[in-house]
Structure formats: C-alpha cells, structure tokens
TrEMBL record:
Protein known as: RNA-directed DNA polymerase
Single GO term (MF): RNA-directed DNA polymerase activity
Domain named Integrase catalytic: residues: 65-199
SUPFAM superfamilies: Ribonuclease H-like (SSF53098)
GO biological process: DNA integration
EC numbers: 2.7.7.49
Naturally occurring in which organism (per UniProt): Sipha flava
Highest taxon in the source lineage: Eukaryota
Gene it is expressed from: LOC112691224
Family annotation (InterPro entries): Integrase_cat-core, Integrase_H2C2, Retrovirus_Pol_polyprotein, RNaseH-like_sf, RNaseH_sf
EC category name: transferase
Length: 199
C-alpha cells in the first residue's frame, strides 16, 4: 500500500466526510492532487455512501451569540436503537457531548449534566426542548446551580436548532461507528478534533 493510501485510510478511518477530512489533511500533509484523492477515496467509501445525507438547510432561528465557551449550551435527547443518549452542544465552540442515559428521567439527566458542568463549568443558559427539562426537579436544579433554563416551544422544536443539529451529528457518529465497526468514543474524539466548517 503506498504511503498516500495509508494516510487517506487513517484520515478517513472515522468517516467524518469530505470537508472535515480535507481540512484535517491540509493541516498535516501536502501532495499534488490531495483534494482530488480525498474526494475519490471518500466517494468510494461504502459506509459514507450509505449514510450520506442531502445537505438541506433549515431556516436559521436568530439566537444571541455567547462570548465564551460553555456560556450557553443546547441540550436534547437522542433515541438510537434500544439506547438513549443525552446530547449537549456548546453554542460558542460547537463542542459536542454525547452521553448514554440509563433512563429519560430528570434525575438521570441532572446526574449527567452535573458531570459535564464539573468539567466545563456551569453555563449561564441551557436551551432545551420541554419534557423532561421543564419538570419541577429540573427547574430546581437550574435554580440551585444558577443557570437560566430556556425551553423551546412544543409546537416548534426547531427553535432549539443547535440541539437538533447536535442530535443529527451524534446519530451520524453512532450509525457510522456501528457500520464501520469503529469505537464510538474514538469517532467522537476525531469529530471534536476536526474543524467546524462554516465557523
């Protein structure tokens, strides 16, 4: 196997897609035709072709931009197969947290959020869909930990667009991990280590 093919294999091992793979490759390597080789390599990837989505854009909902990482975060629940995950996305950096939930109860979500907050700090604002985030237990948690809880309209869940995008990315990571037989945590690590396109 020629060296360039080995590099392409390692760059694309976690199936991040053409744009992220190009960005990562350009920061580490150069050879004539690098972009074309990446496009061709990924274009022939069975895992990526199976999960390739149409790049349709929903209309943007205007949100006030935070000034610091983890000042404002979005949160949602993802059901994947028999498993349930808590997805949290930082508005400032796009950092993605994906944590397994043993149940969808407020107490289980609070337990996971306490761990995340102990690592990244307590946000000023958490944006979430309604249940179970609007329960009394969760509202007490927000009061005790001194952050503002903003819930989106039940009739318009896209108001929490960043969380919905995070769920979409997390679902893609889980699907590609299962299909490509790559460790989910390794895929999450590689996603976090890649540039966010468009920022």
């Amino acid at each position: 196997m020629r060296l360039q093919n080995r590099i392409l294999f390692k760059l694309h091992e976690v199936h991040l897609g053409i744009c992220k793979t190009k960005t990562r490759a350009r920061s580490l390597f150069y050879w004539k035709g690098l972009d074309k080789d990446i496009e061709e390599y990924i274009g022939n990837c069975a895992v990526c072709n199976k999960f390739r989505s149409e790049n349709t854009k929903d209309p943007m909902i205007c949100q006030e931009d935070p000034n610091l990482p983890f000042e404002k975060v979005a949160c949602d629940i993802l059901d994947y197969g028999k498993d349930t995950y808590l997805v949290l996305v930082d508005y400032y950096s796009g950092w993605l947290e994906l944590n397994y939930l043993s149940s969808k109860t407020s107490s289980q979500i609070i337990k996971i959020l306490k761990v995340i907050f102990s690592i990244h700090g307590i946000p000023k604002q958490l944006v979430a869909d309604n249940m179970p985030f609007n329960s009394n237990e969760f509202q007490n948690f927000a009061t005790d930990w001194e952050f503002v809880l903003t819930t989106s309209s039940p009739r318009y869940p896209k108001a929490n667009g960043l969380a919905e995008k995070g769920v979409s990315i997390a679902k893609s990571i889980l699907k590609r991990s299962d299909e490509g037989k790559v460790d989910k945590q390794l895929m999450l690590l590689e996603y976090r280590n890649s540039a966010i396109i468009g920022s």
